[in-house]
Structure formats: C-alpha cells, structure tokens
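Sequence dictates fold. Next comes a concrete instance:
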Amino acid sequence: MGEFNEKATCGTVCLKYLLFTFNCCFWLAGLAVMAVGVWTLALKSDYISLLASGTYLATAYILVVAGVVVMVTGVLGCCATFKERRNLLRLYFILLLIIFLLEIIAGILAYIYYQQLNTELKENLKDTMSKRYHQPGHEGVTSAVDKLQQEFHCCGSNNSQDWRDSEWIRSGQAGGRVVPDSCCKTLVPGCGQRDHASNIYKVEGGCITKLETFIQEHLRVIGAVGVGIGCVQEPEAGALLSVPDGAHAGRSLTPPDYELTLLRARELGSQDAAPSPLCQGGAVLKPLCTPHAIT
C-alpha cells in the first residue's frame, strides 16, 4: 500500500510540473507573438501611410493583442495548476482557443494581403506619391516617401519621370528641383535639380518593386508566427483538459492523508468515526479502511 501511495503522490507532482512547463511555453509563445506585433508597429510602420489598405496594420495590432492575452492566460494557467482548480483550467483553455483563432486570423490576413499587395501598390502608390508629397496635412506621406527613396535607393513609383506630373512640381514648391532631394545618391540641399543617372538613383521597377519586396518579406514573418505558434499552442491546451479529474480535484485529501486520519482514529479508540470517501471509492482502495491495513 505504501508503494501505491508513493506512486500516486509522485504522479501528481510530476503532472503539476508538466503542466507548469506547458504554461511557461504558452507564456513564451505569447511574448514572441507580441514582440513581432510591436516590432511591426514600432520599427516597420514607416511605410504604412503609403498603403491604401489597413490590413497590414490590422495584422500587427491583432498579434499584439493576442500576445498580451496569451501571456496573461499563461500566468492564469500556472495559478490554476498549482491551486488545483479545474474550473480555472477550463477558463484557461477557452481563452487559449480565442487566442488561437486570433492568431490564425492574423496569419490568414497576412496571406491574403500578400497576394493583393502587388495590385494595390501599382494602383495607388503612384497617385499617393504624386498627389500627397509635400502637401499640407500629408507630412507622414512626405516623410515616408523620402525614407523609402533613400533606404531602398529608388526614385519615383516606377521611375524618376513620375515626379514630373506631381502636385509638388506643378505647384512650384519644388524650387527648381525635378525630383526630391531624397532621390540623390549624395543627399545635399538642392541636389534634386539634376536628374542625371550619376546624381540620382535609377532602379528598374522603381520604388514599387522595392516596397513590395520589403512588405512581402514582413508579411511572411507575420503569417508564419501567427499560424505557426497558434498551431503549436492548441494541442498543448488540449492536453491540459485531457488530464483526469483526480489530478485537478480541488483540495482533496491524498491517500497518505487518509492513512493519517485512520491512524489517529485508532489511537483515540474511536469506533464511530465517519467512513472516509476513500472507503467508499472502490475495491482497490478498501484495504485502507481495515485496521490491519496500517502498521
């Protein structure tokens, strides 16, 4: 009987630590998801003002929200495991299911936008650059265009000739420039007055090709993180609910506790002690109830 008790206690302890390990994995997964979302918003959002669709930004926000909630539910899972509250574990599983759906949605949105990006840029980027560059109320577009041309060494949406029809040139704000100074290989004030290939960047495909490649690479990261981590989380969450009820029974006495109770009853000579639930639990545990079962 001592061997039975030892195995039961050891199994319960091992199970608790296994579930604790799962919860730590959930928490780390949530941290990774949130980090990708924050990375998108903080470091990769410079060009969002050049995009007609809000899908790219929406996927980043979904990842941030999903990551935060996964981290919170990871802590909840640890508390539920060590406090042995199965209701908390059910709540934990439901929250993870919601997060799983959010991450899958973010991955699907990233994939859909990945397919539509080329068409969107071709239809909208030229108009955005030519009609909003250096125009009142569009400072974000101006900053994004200048950074785009300098960082990716390009000039104009398709080529440098696109700037000739821009509102910036036609309104006379250019000050004699034919392209923005950000097109220049060596950035100095007024360098945009000369659009020779030795002075400005002339890249095949223009800035559309460069921006498309940049965003597509990032969308692949968002999609992989959202779908990949979501698929890893859910089987582990299912494993939590597959644990037998006895492993989560709130504050129930273990077999050693029943032995101690019976031993004290014998020492006190009590014959009227109420039968413990263990004595009613089945033939396997009946020997604990007999006087000679405890030596």
Notes: The CA atoms of residues 236 and 242 lie 10 Å apart. The two ends are 11 Å apart (CA to CA). Residues 2-243 form one domain.
